[in-house]
């Protein structure tokens, strides 16, 4: 949806596969940091670990997350790992190691429809772009 609205967006796994720096779902973050990424938005559960200006974290209801992860074929261990990460705000605290707090945003999906979540993200990105330019 971001790409359809003139924001160049890519999943970091695509870049990792293209550059052969992923093995068994583990990405070589140090190698990834060395790659020039010509996109406005990069998406992944580890995007906060590369050089970036802002981080947007999406959270959702656990039951909805479980259904989504089961649909993706995640095993129980992977599902619990993801739930624990959301409960403990792991990504937020890791992002704080790289960015000031006012550059990290949390959007609660709360099982809203995708258009509502997209509009909130898109408007946030537009407001951040105005601050940068």
Approximate shape: globular
Work out the helix count: 6
Runs in which pLDDT lies below 50 for 5 or more consecutive residues are none
Largest sheet: 2 strands, parallel
* Overall SS class: alpha/beta
CATH level 3 topology: Rossmann fold
Number of domains: 1
Kindly report the name of the CATH homologous superfamily. Answer: P-loop containing nucleotide triphosphate hydrolases
Q: What is the CA–CA distance across the termini?
A: 23 Å
Can you tell me the CATH architecture? 3-Layer(aba) Sandwich
- Strand order within the widest sheet? 1-4
Mean pLDDT: 91
Number of strands: 6
Report the CATH C-level class.
Alpha Beta
Percent range for helical residues? 40-55%
Radius of gyration: 15 Å
Helix-strand string: EHEEHEEHHHEH
Give the amount of beta strand, in percent.
15-25%
Tell me what you see in this structure.
By secondary structure, this protein is an alpha/beta fold. The protein has one domain: Rossmann fold (3-Layer(aba) Sandwich). It is 45% helix and 15% strand. The strands form three sheets. The protein has a two-stranded parallel sheet with strand order 1-4. A two-stranded antiparallel ribbon has the order 2-3. The protein has a two-stranded parallel ribbon with strand order 5-6. β2 (22-23) and β3 (26-27) form a beta hairpin. The longest helix has 19 residues, at 114-132. It is globular and about 35 Å long.
